[in-house]
Every structure is written in structure tokens, then in C-alpha cells.
């Protein structure tokens, strides 16, 4: 009997297993399970895991609308805009009557600055459902974005007519009226929203933000306080109140308020992060770092806190500590896009650009639409000397996030480096559009306009910069440079001085004034001016660099060397000071010391091609042509269009029986990059002489001799060109003049031999 019961149990168990297996093979059950698991992950903020679950569901059923819809939501939360757009588009293809998704797709297009396309989505819905309120709101917002305020307001009135007691509609109307500068009407709309729902925190916050924009700080504060009365744990109200206090120069009140928010909401991430972010925005980096150290201890599972903490360590150049924490993060969350981007940032700053690029490639494989990843990769490509790829990555970052100011600034730097002032102008305008209250954009646009020969436009931008930030010395230095170009020297000097009064450490101000005095041959005054400022600010390395420049102009190389050593003692990482020190030592004939200084520069920035080229020149001067050749090759590996390396490497190949064709390519590259250089003309002409192209050689050498008539080599080579052309009289005259310049030079015997050949 007992055995029968056991057999019955086993049969039932087997049947249950078969049923379970059958269910697991049912594709509808499996896809729903993936969808449900994805929703759980999405609600828990595990967006990457959620996306994988939704994609698994779609693999089972490519027409599973709910999975496509949720995957789009997941992409939106990860800020993967193009991927979200593709999924939303797929939903509309599968379910054209899904008006909610049509509107959401339109809102995404609107956020991506495609208002016309967004308007088309709104009209698609309204043609089928004229009473769709959300579609009318989308249409209104699209009209507003295209500058058609009248149509936008009309659409909002239609939406309100359909749902007259919806507070959110009056909030949207108020925002459109504000943008149209209909401030009284906007205020009334916000008040109506509050009357409809006096306990709506969103309405109170919107009303407060409106008053804050109007600088009606007392009214704004009242609205935010009301929001806190309705919901005492509203982090956004604390944040906005703190902003109001800061606008009124009540920083201690703002700090105390945010400390209160942290105490009242110790478990609310939006609240307990406010104080640290406030310190960072206020420029109190050490306080921000200390705050995040504590937050990381108190909330070890808050991934955003950990990431912000790592970013602060990166900003503070605490790279080893940042690296260790980031590795711990990546161990817990493999291939986390933010973690990989931060790893790329750290490695870039540690001068490991190739390793940084690998980390960023991982980030982009997981999150191909991460603007941060494209931005940092752009910086890395610039570090690697790949300007074209750098520009491409930075533009992609801006495409994904049009208001990304750091990307625009990096593009500005690239534009300045290549002398593309149209691009600089475009980037400057993007910065101004994103940060109209910052001087950066105006200063860059002024620089672009100066180089585009528009001094009036440049002046207007500099005046705007001064109105935005009256105490920023850079604006006055910019005016000084503009007046210098116009040869209005008293006005230039006056503005440089104003800048130095605003900021005694202004390198732009003292540098501009020093150059101005040197240009007027007022070397003594330049020396005195720099020394006076150093007495006021004795610990500022760039001022000693300026002093060295004045001393070099006065041929005081020993003094210049001492000043540069002082600059380096203050700032051991000042590459410009190290570079100038090496050049000064080279001018003094101390080649070994110069080489050692350039080697220090190589170690600090192994991706800078200049030290390699200059060490090559020293090696060449010391007769170590093979070592020199290696240095030139290293320089060109970093920067293929390095003119000095290309020119000198070409010459070495000619002198030591290398490939003449390779020498020609290198010489042509150098000539293209330095078309006004007598040296590149001579090198290219030497290749032509070797190949028997005497006329081409003569054209180049005549130009070189005209620019440097006292150069013996140029005259000698010109004589060889005439000799090859059978113009013996000109050849003899050129050889004789070359010999007269220096009859005891190492080249003199070769010149005498050429003269004797003409006589035979």
C-alpha cells in the first residue's frame, strides 16, 4: 500500500514537471515572463537589465507591441535618443492607432529640435482624433518652437476647451506665454492652475519658477514655501529656494536650507545629494568632495553618489583614488557605461590615450548614444593627434546633446589650432545659446570676429562679456588685444591694466601688455612691468615665463634660464616653461642640458611631438644622425604632418643614401605645411637636384636666397641648380658668393671643388 502511494506521488510529480516544461516552451508565456521581469528591473532603476529582458521578449515575438513600447521607455531613461526613436517608430508601424505613442514620438522629436517633424506627428493624430488633448499640446509646443506664438496659443486654447479643468494645460500655456513675453497672461495661467488644484506641488513650483525668472524673489520664495507646506519632503522646492537665496547673495541661508533638507530627508537621494552639488556649483570643491566622501559612506548602494564621488576625484586630479573606486564599481557593474567613460577620463589624464580609447569603445558598445562617451573620445583623439576623428566625435556628442557646452568648447580649441575661424564662430554661438550668462562664448566669438576682420563685431562681444561678468579680467585683455591690432596703444595698455586690477594673476592681461611694450621696442619698460607684477604675485609661474621672454628679447639667456627654473619650481608640470628652458639651453650651446629638459617634457606628455623633433635636431647637431632619424620618426608617428620632423627627416635621407622618393614625399609635406620657410624650400630643392629637376630647384632656391641672403648652403645649392641648367656664369657667381660668406665652413671645400669643376 505504501509503495502504491509513492508511485502515485512520483506519477503526479512527473506530470507536474511535464506541465511546467510545457509552459516554459510556450512562447507567449516566455515573452510575457521577459516583459514582466523587464518591468521589475525598470522600476528598480536597473535600466540595462530591463533593456535586455525586453529585447529577449522581442526576439521571441518581433511584433510584441508592449515589449517595443517598454524598450522605448527604457532607452529614454538611458538617454539613448535614437534607439528610443527607432522603437517608438516601430510601435507606430505595428499599431498606427496608438495615439499615445505617436504623441510621445512627437515629443521626442521636439526635444531633438525637430519641431516640424513633431508637428507632423501631432497632425497625424488630430486627423484621426480631433479631440486628442495631448496632440493639441504637442502641436502648440511645436508651433512655439518654430516661433509661431499665435498658433501655439490658439492650440493651447483648443486643448483647454476640451479639458478646461486640467491644471497641467494651464502650466503649459503659461510657459508658452512666458516665452512669448506675455508675462501678465502667463502669471494668470499659472494662478489658474493653482486655483484648480491648490495642493498641486508642480503648479506651485512652476509659479515660483516664473517669479524667479522675473526676479520677483519674494513672490517666488512664497510659492516654494507653499509647496513645502503641501508636501514637506519636496526636494525640488528646497533646491529652488536655495537658488533664490544665492541670487540674493544669501549663501549662508542657502547652505543652511540644504543642510536642513538633508536632515529631514536622509533617505531621499534627491535631497541628500543637494548639499554636495551646491558646494560644487558654488566653486567650493573641497567642501563638495568632503560631502561626497561622507555620502559614499552613508549610502554605499547609491550608484549615483559613487559616480559623482569618482567624478569629483577626477576633477581634483586624485586619479589613483578615482581609478581604484571606479574599478570597484566596474567589478560590481561590468561594462557600466558611466564607469567605462570615467575610466576613459582617468586614463586620458594619466597620458594613456590608447587605453582610454579602448575603455570608451566599450562604453559606446553598450551605450552608443552616450554624449559623454563621444565627448571624452573626442578629447582622446585630439590627444592622439587625430584631429579629424576628434572633431567627428565631438560633433556626434553635440548631435546627441545640442547644449553640451564642453563639446562646443573642445571644438573651439580644435578650430583655433587649425585656424578655422568660421568653425570657431559657430562653436562660440552654440556656447552663447546654451550659456548666455557666461563670458566664454562671447570671448571666443570676439576672437573669431577679430580674425574674420570684423573689429566692430568683436568689440560688441567683448562689451557684452564685460556686462555679463564685469570682474572677469579676460574681457579687458581681449579689448587690449583688439586695440593693439588697431594700433591704439594707449587704449590697449589701459585695458590690460584694468584687467590686472580686476585679477592681479591675469596672465592674459600681463602677457598682452608685455607683448605690446616689446612690439614698441620698449624692452626696459616691459621688464619693469613684469617685475612689478611679480612683486605683487610672487607665486604665479606664468609671470616668470613672461619675464624669461623679456630677458630673451634682451639677449639675457642666463637670466631667462633662471626665471624658467623658478617657474618650474613653482609649477613642475608647466610644459611651456620646460619647453622654453630647453630652447634657451639649446641657444646657449648646452645641448646635453637641453636634451635632458626635452626628455622631461617627453615623460610628462609622451603624445606631444615637439620634444621628439627637437631632440632629433640636437642629435643631428651632435652628429648622431641615426638617433636623430628615430626621433623624427617618433614625432611623425604621433603627428604625421609635423613639418619640422618631415623636413629634417627628408634631409637625413638625402645625406645618408636613403630613399629619394620618400625624401621627396616628406619634403613636399614640410613645404605644404611651411610654405614661407626658406629651410623647407632648400630641402625640397635638394631633392629636386638629386632627381635632376634643376628648374624646379632653381625656383625654390632663388626664393630661399632672397629670404636668407647670408645663408651659405642656400647659395651653394643655387649654384648647383645653375650648374645643372648649364648656366655656368650664374653658377660661378653663386659659388663665389657662397664661399665669401664663410671660407672656413665645413662646406667650403665642396664649394671650391664645384668651382674647380666649372673651370675644367
Q: Helical element count?
A: 45
Fold-level CATH name of the domain at 676-760: Serine Threonine Protein Phosphatase 5, Tetratricopeptide repeat
Secondary structural class: mainly alpha
Q: What Rg do the Cα atoms give?
A: 35 Å
CATH superfamily of the domain at 676-760: Tetratricopeptide repeat domain
Write down the overall mean pLDDT. Answer: 89
Question: How much helical structure, as a percent, in the residues?
Answer: over 70%
Distance between the termini: 132 Å
Low-confidence stretches: 1-23
Instruction: Please tally the β strands and state the result.
Output: 0
Q: Main sheet?
A: none
Question: Can you describe what's shown?
Answer:
There is one protein chain. With 760 residues, this protein is mostly helical. Helix 4 (65-77) runs antiparallel to helix 5 (81-94), helix 15 packs antiparallel against helix 17 and helix 30 (489-502) packs antiparallel against helix 31 (507-519). The protein has 45 helices and no strands. It is elongated and about 110 Å long. The protein has a domain at 676-760: Tetratricopeptide repeat domain (Serine Threonine Protein Phosphatase 5, Tetratricopeptide repeat), CATH 1.25.40. The protein starts with a helix and ends with a helix.
Amino acid at each position: 500500500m505504501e509503495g502504491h502511494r509513492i508511485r502515485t506521488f512520483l506519477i503526479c510529480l512527473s506530470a507536474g514537471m511535464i506541465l511546467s516544461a510545457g509552459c516554459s516552451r510556450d512562447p507567449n508565456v516566455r515573452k510575457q515572463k521577459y516583459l514582466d521581469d523587464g518591468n521589475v528591473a525598470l522600476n528598480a532603476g536597473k535600466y540595462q537589465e530591463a533593456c535586455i529582458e525586453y529585447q529577449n521578449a522581442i526576439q521571441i515575438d518581433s511584433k510584441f507591441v508592449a515589449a517595443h513600447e517598454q524598450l522605448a521607455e527604457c532607452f529614454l531613461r538611458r538617454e539613448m535618443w535614437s534607439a528610443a526613436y527607432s522603437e517608438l517608430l516601430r510601435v507606430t508601424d505595428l499599431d498606427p492607432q496608438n495615439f499615445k505613442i505617436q504623441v510621445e514620438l512627437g515629443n521626442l522629436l521636439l526635444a531633438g529640435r525637430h519641431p516640424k517633424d513633431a508637428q507632423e506627428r501631432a497632425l497625424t493624430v488630430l486627423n484621426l482624433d480631433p479631440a486628442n488633448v495631448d496632440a493639441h499640446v504637442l502641436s502648440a509646443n511645436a508651433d512655439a518652437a518654430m516661433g509661431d506664438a499665435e498658433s501655439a496659443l490658439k492650440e493651447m486654447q483648443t486643448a483647454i476647451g476640451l479639458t478646461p479643468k486640467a491644471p497641467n494645460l494651464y502650466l503649459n500655456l503659461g510657459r508658452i506665454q512666458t516665452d512669448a513675453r506675455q508675462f501678465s497672461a502667463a502669471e494668470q495661467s499659472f494662478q489658474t492652475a493653482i486655483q484648480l488644484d491648490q495642493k498641486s506641488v508642480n503648479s506651485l513650483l512652476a509659479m515660483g519658477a516664473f517669479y524667479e525668472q522675473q526676479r520677483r524673489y519674494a513672490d517666488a520664495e512664497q510659492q516654494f514655501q507653499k509647496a513645502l507646506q503641501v508636501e514637506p519632503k519636496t526636494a525640488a522646492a528646497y533646491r529652488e529656494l536655495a537658488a533664490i537665496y544665492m541670487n540674493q547673495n544669501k549663501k549662508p541661508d542657502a547652505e543652511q536650507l540644504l543642510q536642513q533638507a538633508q536632515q529631514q530627508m536622509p533617505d531621499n537621494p534627491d535631497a541628500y545629494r543637494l548639499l554636495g552639488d551646491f558646494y560644487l556649483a558654488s566653486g567650493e570643491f573641497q567642501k563638495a568632495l568632503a560631502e561626497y566622501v561622507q555620502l559614499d559612506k552613508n549610502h554605499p548602494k547609491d550608484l549615483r553618489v559613487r559616480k559623482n564621488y569618482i567624478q569629483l576625484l577626477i576633477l581634483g586630479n586624485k586619479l589613483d583614488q578615482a581609478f581604484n573606486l571606479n574599478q570597484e564599481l566596474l567589478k560590481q557593474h561590468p561594462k557600466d557605461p558611466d564607469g567605462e567613460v570615467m575610466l576613459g577620463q582617468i586614463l586620458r589624464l594619466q597620458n594613456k590615450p590608447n587605453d582610454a580609447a579602448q575603455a570608451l569603445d566599450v562604453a559606446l558598445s553598450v551605450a552608443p548614444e552616450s554624449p559623454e562617451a563621444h565627448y571624452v573620445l573626442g578629447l582622446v583623439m585630439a590627444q592622439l593627434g587625430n584631429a579629424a576623428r576628434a572633431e567627428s566625435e565631438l560633433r556626434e556628442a553635440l548631435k546627441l546633446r545640442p547644449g553640451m557646452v564642453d563639446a562646443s568648447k573642445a571644438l573651439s580649441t580644435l578650430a583655433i589650432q587649425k585656424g578655422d575661424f568660421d568653425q570657431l564662430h559657430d562653436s562660440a554661438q552654440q556656447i552663447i545659446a546654451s550659456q548666455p550668462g557666461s563670458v566664454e562664448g562671447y570671448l571666443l566669438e570676439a576672437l573669431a570676429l577679430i580674425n574674420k576682420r570684423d573689429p566692430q563685431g568683436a568689440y560688441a562681444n567683448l562689451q557684452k562679456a564685460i556686462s555679463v561678468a564685469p570682474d572677469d579680467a579676460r574681457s579687458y585683455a581681449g579689448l587690449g588685444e583688439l586695440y593693439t591690432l588697431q594700433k591704439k596703444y594707449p587704449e590697449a595698455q589701459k585695458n590690460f591694466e584694468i584687467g590686472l586690477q580686476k585679477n592681479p594673476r591675469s596672465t592674459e592681461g600681463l602677457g598682452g601688455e608685455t607683448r605690446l611694450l616689446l612690439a614698441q621696442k620698449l624692452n626696459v619698460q616691459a621688464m619693469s612691468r613684469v617685475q612689478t607684477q611679480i612683486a605683487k604675485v610672487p607665486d604665479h609661474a606664468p609671470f616668470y615665463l613672461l619675464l624669461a621672454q623679456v630677458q630673451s628679447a634682451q639677449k639675457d639667456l642666463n637670466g631667462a634660464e633662471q626665471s624658467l627654473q623658478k617657474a618650474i619650481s613653482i609649477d613642475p608640470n608647466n610644459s611651456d616653461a620646460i619647453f622654453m628652458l630647453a630652447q634657451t639651453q639649446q641657444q646657449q650651446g648646452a645641448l646635453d642640458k637641453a636634451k635632458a629638459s626635452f626628455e622631461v617634457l617627453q615623460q610628462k606628455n609622451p603624445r606631444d611631438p615637439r620634444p621628439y623633433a627637437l631632440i632629433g635636431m640636437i642629435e643631428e647637431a651632435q652628429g648622431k644622425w641615426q638617433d636623430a632619424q628615430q626621433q623624427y620618426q617618433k614625432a611623425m608617428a604621433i603627428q604625421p604632418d609635423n613639418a619640422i620632423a618631415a623636413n629634417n627627416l627628408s634631409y637625413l635621407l638625402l645625406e645618408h643614401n636613403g630613399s629619394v622618393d620618400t625624401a621627396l614625399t616628406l619634403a613636399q609635406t614640410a613645404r605644404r605645411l611651411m610654405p614661407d620657410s626658406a629651410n623647407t624650400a632648400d630641402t625640397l630643392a635638394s631633392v629636386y637636384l638629386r632627381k635632376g629637376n634643376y628648374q624646379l630647384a632653381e625656383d625654390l632656391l632663388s626664393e630661399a636666397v632672397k629670404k636668407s641672403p647670408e645663408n651659405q648652403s642656400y647659395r651653394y645649392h643655387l649654384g648647383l641648380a645653375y650648374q645643372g641648367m648649364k648656366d655656368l656664369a650664374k653658377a660661378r657667381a653663386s659659388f663665389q658668393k657662397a664661399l665669401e660668406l664663410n671660407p672656413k665652413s665645413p662646406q667650403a671645400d665642396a664649394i671650391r671643388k664645384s668651382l674647380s669643376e666649372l673651370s675644367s
